[in-house]
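Issue 218. Parser rejects a valid record. Input:
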Amino acid sequence: MASGGMTEGSPPPREALLARALVELADTLVDDFDVVELLTRLADRCVEVLGVGAAGLMLAGPDGELRVMASSSEATRVLELFELQAKEGPCLDCYRSGKPVMQQDLATPTSRWPRFAAETLAAGFRSVQSLPMRLRGTIIGALNLFQVGTGEMRRADIEGAQALADVATIAVLQHRAALEAQVLNQQLQHALNSRIVIEQAKGMVAERAGLNMELAFSALRTYARNHNLPLVDVAGAVIDGSLAPSTLGPSTLVAERRPPAQGKMST
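Output the parser choked on:
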């Protein structure tokens, strides 16, 4: 007899499997982790640890609409896609309300999702539980758990599934924040680089066209506007020599201030 009352070779208790699954999910949270792989692993572990028949996850896109992101089987993926197409089902209700949604027997005539229920029963499942992927006030999707039998899931299993979903939710939100920060940093760096290029071009125009720095900058802007070009592209052309600074001299500024020509009056 092994410690803890377990016999040699006996399967580990569900709590140990759940702890192992949580650690496994946490181990995937590296800088460049794959969100789809993480969510697929979550769906697989729900089936293995909680003993449900199948699992699937949906995430909301930038437009707020849910999309199928992961499933424990191809049949489950098709079922989740049907839920979106039919615009009815537990995952949709769970996402909209931010609360768990359960249907203990999809075969009951009073099922709230008649089309989804029929499709789910045809796939071999009798009951479903949906849990929100939520962190404080932010809801990003929902986890669907399908069971072959009827009845409510054990409270411990529901809590375990919610814990797995919470880990995935934190991971997805951190991933999004990292991407947004990266984009913001790239935009900021681009702006800084652009400013450096413009300052260099401004100095070249000022020196070679005999203008002060303010007028040189105005000449760059005028040329960019007149030719419908980004200012940084005009500055780059001055630096690489494809646009002669002399062409941005006083004549450019005069042309900007010159009133439009009047049409000739008919006699």
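Fixed in the parser; the record now loads. DSSP finds nine helices and five strands in the chain.
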